[in-house]
Fold this protein.
Amino acid sequence: MRNGVIAIHRDGTIALANDEAYRIFAIPRPADETRRAFNEVFRDRPDVVRALSAAFEMTTLPNRAELRLRDLDRVIGYTLSQVRDDQGCVVGAVMYFKDLTLVEQAEERERLRDRLASLGEMAAGIAHELKNPLAGIEVMAGLLRRQVTDLPDAQTLLADIISEAKLANAIVVEMLEFVRPIRLQMEQTDVREVLHQSVTLAESKVRRGDVAVVLNLPPSLPLVDGDQHQLCQVFTNLLTNAFEALDGRGHITISAVVEEVTQDPAFVVDASDARTRTITVDVTDDGPGVPPDLSDRIFDPFFTTKPQGSGLGLAIVRKIVDAHDGRIDLSSAPGHGTRFRVTLPVSSGSSWFK
Ligand SMILES: Nc1ncnc2c1ncn2[C@@H]1O[C@H](COP(=O)(O)OP(=O)(O)O)[C@@H](O)[C@H]1O
Ligand SMILES: [Mg+2]
């Protein structure tokens, strides 16, 4: 049985609890659990004890309720039922439950995608309309600059106008990049090459200063099915953020490893798909880190903490990684640094030596 089930008698002793129940709630199975007090065996899970014990008192039982196990980072969906004897007296209660963590993660991503879709249409329209007038401002300020060569003050102002128009244009270009439906030019891509190119690109975009960049890569990696140009953008954006966070001093480490993942059997159709090889790339910096309350928001489009930021860098990263059936995770200890982990599936036809 893939679901968990716990049944208790009216006197609070356990009638039955399956292995899945102990696994999901991370409780060691006692040697002989029947007739042991439920609240004692599950004392480390007071929420569960409360939920199931309440089944005796309730007149209407929840059809589907959820429990969040914060320490395990799990979401459990459960239903309760009462067990009655022939006279109709309640003699026991049963909780059926399922680990919803993976389902919940998928739903969260789905919701984000919907939000982005409508926002995207609007943004694409605006960005498109803005591109031409901005280019016009830049060109005309350039022409005017040539007519007032003898006025130093005017020269400075015009130079400022041009650089501001350029900045605005860069944001618009980024925005279009973000909202345009993604079209991947798939090829067998060498992640090592992508990472080397990304370092060069990031350095050309922002000031590197004295930041040390260490690439920790195995001598060869299996190829991934991917769009080389767009994958470069993923790591370029992560690296520009790291450079900006470090502000001229600190360390960035880029590492890549191949991993074998076993997927949750509940989500695999074909058993031969259960094991997949992935490449995990970590981009780690020892900068200020991301405060925990912001970690959910930094991937949102337009979320930025920088005065001149567009807030689109990570939104683009997520979009490209999603399109590659990959994953991106953030872990950060404020004050110690930030690690972005990108996981990409290895191309099924890839051998190590291509
Ligand atoms: N390596 C990092 N260290 C600390 N904060 C980061 C890092 N990367 C991203 N962030 C945070 O995430 C926010 C969003 O990043 P991003 O989407 O690239 O937009 P932008 O760089 O334009 O602000 C940044 O403003 C910053 O607060
Ligand atoms: Mg950025």
Q: What stands out?
A: The chain has a mean pLDDT of 88. Residues 237, 241-242, 245, 285, 287-290, 298, 303-306, 309-315, 338 surround adenosine-5'-diphosphate (ligand 1) (CB under 6 Å). The chain has three domains: 4-99, 104-179, 187-345. Residues 304 and 311 are 4 Å apart (CA to CA).
